[in-house]
Write a structure and sequence with these properties.
Length: 457
Amino acid sequence: RNTPDLETLDKRYFFHPFTALADHERNGPHVVVKGEGVWLEDNHGARFIDGMAGLWCVNVGYGREEIADVLQHQALTLPYFHSFSSWATDTPILLAERLIEMAPVPMSKVFFGQSGSDANDTQVKLVWYYNNARGKPGKKKIIARNRGYHGVTIVSGSLTGMPSLHSGFDLPLSFVRHTTAPYRLWEAEPGLSDEDFVARLAGDLENLILAEGPETVGAVIMEPVMGAGGVIVPPEGYYPAIRAVLDRHDVLLIADEVITGFGRLGTMFGTTAMAMQPDLVTLAKGITSAYVPLSACMVSEKVWRAIVDGQGALGAFGHGYTYSAHPLAAAAALANLDIIENDGLVEQAGARGAFMHARLQAAFADHPLVGEIRGTGLVGAVEFVARKSPATRFEPALKIAGRVVKAALAQGVITRALPHADTISFSPPFVISEDEITQMVEGARKAADAVMDDLVR
Ligand code: PLP
C-alpha cells in the first residue's frame, strides 16, 4: 500500500472532537506522527515545540523508553483482567498504595477509571452514595464554578462552567449550579485587596448554598488552579475561606487535580500549593503522562467509612468500567511516577516555570494587546484585551487568541487558545530546556505582533 493520504482519509472518515465540522471539511487536519522530548513532527516533516504537552498532560515528554519498556512487558505478562467484585490485578494495587502514600492530604482508597470526565462522574456518584448511606439523600446538588473545566460527559460536562459546551446538548443537568471564579481581571475592581476579594468569593458561594438550601447541596468541585477556563490562580487565602463555608454546611470538597496533579505547579499536587483541603481528589492526565488513558478518584477515610457503614440498605457500589484499574495503564503510571521522582521533575517544573514566567513577563508585559499574564509553576497564560484600562474585551468574533495560536504555529510553536478568556496558554512538558522555553515564548511574541499588525492594517 502506498503512503496513505492522511488528510483525505481524515476528512472522509474521522469525526473530530471539539471541531467546527464544516470548517474542518474544508481545511482538513494537521497530522502529528512523531514526538521526542518537547518536539513534535507532522506528516510533512515540519517540527514544532509542544508548548502544551498535548493537552496539559505529556509531562515527562515524548519518547520515554522507560514507559515503553514497561508497557511491552505488561502487555506480554498480563494485558488485561478486570477488578469487579473481588478480582484484582497486581499493578493497580501497587499504584493505589503509592497514590495513597503520596496523597496531598490523608486519603484512604483509590477508584480507577480512564479519563478525567469519567472520574468526575464517579465523584458525583460517590457524593450521592455517601449522602444516601448516611441518611441525607436530599444532598444531591453539586456546585462548580463559572469557567471551570471538569470534562464533557453528561455529568462532568454539566459541571464544566462554559456555556458553549452546554449549547446543543441541553446541559447543564438540573442538579448542577455554578458560582463565581476567582478571576481578578474581570471579577474584581482594580485595587480590591486579596482579603476583600476572597471574602466576596466565599460570600458568593455561601449565599448560593443558603439560597438552594444546605440540605440539598452535596459537594463543590474546584480545580486548584483553573486550566482551560483561563489559567486562573486564586488569591491567597481562597481555599481556606471556601473550606470554612463548606464545613458550616456539611458540603464535601472535590479537588479536580486533572491538570495540577503530579508536578505541574512545582509541587506534587496542586492542593498543597493552593492550601486546599479536599475530601475527594480527581486525577488523570499526568498520572501516566498520557502514555495510556487512566484516571483516579482518591477518597478520604470520612467518605469511605460512611459508604462502607451505610452500604447495607443500598447494596453494592454498583459502578465501575470494563477498563477500571487497567493493568497496562497502572504499569505505565508506576513507570511515569518513577521517572518523575528519579529525575526530580517536580522541582524541575517549579524551576523551569519560574524561568518561563520571567520570559513571559519580558515578552508580553508591555505588549499593546496584553491585559494580563498569569500562572504559577509550569503553567502560564497571556490574556488579550482591546483596552488595558479600564480592561475591555475584544469582540469575541475577532478571535484574537485563536489567531495568535495560528500565527505561533507558523513560528513552530504550539500553544492553545482558551477562547472563554481570549487567552493563550503554555503548559509544556517538564523536560523543556531554558532555550526551548525562550524559543517558545519568542515564537508566541512574534505571533502576537503579527496579529497586531493585522489588526491595525
Ligand atoms: N478536569 C480537568 C481539570 C481537565 O483539565 C480535564 C481535561 O482537560 C478534565 C477534567 C477532563 O478530562 P478528560 O478529557 O480526560 O475527560
